[in-house]
């Protein structure tokens, strides 16, 4: 689908002539193009709080315990992708070299299968960077948002502003409680591949089996010090 076939009058990037690919964020089935999404707030440069740090760390602890329970040994790469772990050193390296490319996404809809995207970035930022800040997309449980406005905000952040964008990959979800509300939970620019986990994470997943074996060994060898385990994983190879 071409950008020009949507209502992009607010997107002040006249040189953009590209394809947009729409996928369901859970099933990865192709979706029909849409412009109407749930209402949202786009908040720039939000400092991460102590609560953000604690919540992201508790998610890490739960993920580690899920490894011991064998949940990462199955075929369910949506709920238990080992990129939860192998993505951490890549996120650290990417943030260190390039800064943040994309916002954190959140929806209050408890029935949405994707309620928050970006916990790994919060974990890395809050534990390894001083005074980190993020952009946040916070959806509301009502219609009224426009996809073109959201794309415009992201494309004008400190990383993408002025960059020529050739294509857009969009992964979205809906919830049973508000089935008419669409929540784009991943928007990637200039992605080279289509993957159920998104282009960037999917590439790491498909090429990271040997790294996963090394990190999995760290997990089974660790002595109960989750903070040290986190440092060992994030700083591995960096």
Describe the structure.
By secondary structure, this protein is of the alpha/beta class. The protein has one domain. The strands form 2 sheets. The protein has a 4-stranded mixed beta sheet with strand order 2-5-3-4. Strands 1-6-7 form a 3-stranded mixed beta sheet, covered by helices on one side. The longest helix is centred in the N-terminal third of the chain and has 19 residues. The termini are far apart.
Number of strands: 7
Structural class: alpha/beta
Indicate the mean pLDDT: 86
Radius of gyration: 18 Å
Largest sheet: 4 strands, mixed
Strand order of the largest sheet: 2-5-3-4
Shape: globular
Total domain units: 1
Helix content: 25-40%
Q: Give the end-to-end Cα distance, rounded to a whole number of Å.
A: 39 Å
Q: How do the helices and strands follow one another from N- to C-terminus?
A: EEHHEEHEHEEHHH
Quick structural overview:
With 238 residues, the chain is α/β, with parallel strands linked by helices.
Defining traits:
disordered N terminus; about 20% strand; single chain; three-stranded mixed sheet; 7 helices; globular; four-stranded mixed sheet; alpha/beta
Structural topology:
Elements: E1 19-24, E2 36-47, H1 50-68, H2 83-98, E3 104-106, E4 116-117, H3 119-128, E5 133-146, H4 147-155, E6 167-173, E7 183-189, H5 199-206, H6 209-221, H7 226-234
Parallel strand pairs: 1-6, 3-5
Antiparallel strand pairs: 2-5, 3-4, 6-7
Helix pairs in contact: 1-3, 2-3, 2-5
